[in-house]
């Protein structure tokens, strides 16, 4: 049984060498963990001997300590009657000042700073509109984490551009008066072939975080893949569900396999439809926008140089620091174990070639997601949509059918036409990640619902203009992929994408 402590006892452990911090009524010894904390040691040591719940809660899930750290760091339960206001570390400011943006002066040719005025939700016409607003309203560190890609961000950008290398081949004089976008995922009905893929730390976008995404998915009739690295607990996300809401779940396998097994069993007991095991991240990528934001974060010490704590390499940003909680030893030999711990269908998320898709099929898995982790892992790897024809051909040659093995794809989807093209090439479902976060950051739950409606409207239009009244009627005969794998084909400039993309910049040009 955990010891009962007073806050005065905790307050004695108030140095960086002896650093206890109270979170949700429990005292934790974070003396060692502070040295590898993603945001730097000072964010923890500044709260040494104090109750840091108010500062911790806006970003982290309540159960992250138990989920990621060893039990022996919990030193006891703190008597709430002994906690005063003086014992509480300050949380983030309640209100963020209105963001500024550069604009051209009406009287002179120079740039001036103006207060950004967020446009009304009804002015959002496409996913890029949400991204442009999110960039203005999000904290720089949050924007850096979400928008960053691996290394030179070649794959990040090509994920979207690849769809433009696929051209339409519409058919005419087809009765398209009624358009039916209904389909199924793994045998379960779905209102359209779109799902919200797992994304980490959604509270960085909006206080509603993953709970807001769950609610928006229910309102929009879209399946949501619950993330392992969420900013709400699994229980909180599950409690936000609507009756009968279809849900997937994503899993990073923990080096301590027992923890992953317990998590999976909890998902299964809650009625989650399928488990998507991330296999493209034995180490998380080198994302320079995220890394740079760590050097400017207020209260962080990642810029302190080579003095003691500063000698610890935390400059890799939030993403790389999470790597230590992901099992880099996961391999094909572990697939039977994954299948043995659940009755849910198990799929691999992050397949990037036909050979691995066939191996997954032959291993008896339920399917795979063609994904490069949103361009955040191995730069210059191929977009999922580019891999799709290769994978479908390999699976056909191996004798797989859609009933046996389903293929999903994510990365770069920004238009209803992108959804159409992925369906035409054989995808059962198409995942969107960043557009959900940007819509959430900009307008909350209503923003996500609006974003889905825009994609639905676009998909309906494309289906009608292509002569395909149902999802089942969309085939590879409706698109041309001649240029899909040719990366030197000149294309018209995608102005929306180009103007919302934030270019990487070297240190001297920041």
From TrEMBL:
Provide this UniProt record's keywords sorted from A to Z.
Flavoprotein, FMN, Heme, Iron, Metal-binding, Mitochondrion, Oxidoreductase
Q: Where does the Cytochrome b5 heme-binding domain start and stop, copy by copy?
A: 2-79
- Pfam families, alphabetically? Cyt-b5, FMN_dh
Select a single GO molecular function from the record's annotations and give it: L-lactate dehydrogenase (cytochrome) activity
- Cited SMART domains: Cyt-b5
Principal location: mitochondrion
A GO cellular component annotated for this chain's UniProt record is: mitochondrial intermembrane space
Q: Does the keyword Oxidoreductase apply?
A: yes
Top-rank EC class of the record's enzyme: oxidoreductase
Q: Where are the annotated segments for Disordered?
A: 87-110, 288-314
> Where does the FMN hydroxy acid dehydrogenase domain lie?
119-484
What are the names of the required cofactors?
A: FMN
This entry's Enzyme Commission designation comes to: 1.1.2.3
Cell location: Mitochondrion intermembrane space
Q: Which reaction does it catalyse?
A: (S)-lactate + 2 Fe(III)-[cytochrome c] = 2 Fe(II)-[cytochrome c] + pyruvate + 2 H(+)
Q: Which family does it belong to?
A: In the C-terminal section; belongs to the FMN-dependent alpha-hydroxy acid dehydrogenase family.
Q: Quote the subunit structure annotation.
A: Homotetramer.
Q: PANTHER family given for it? A: L-LACTATE DEHYDROGENASE (CYTOCHROME), S -2-HYDROXY-ACID OXIDASE-RELATED
Q: What is the protein name for this chain?
A: L-lactate dehydrogenase (cytochrome)
State the species of origin.
Polarella glacialis (Dinoflagellate)
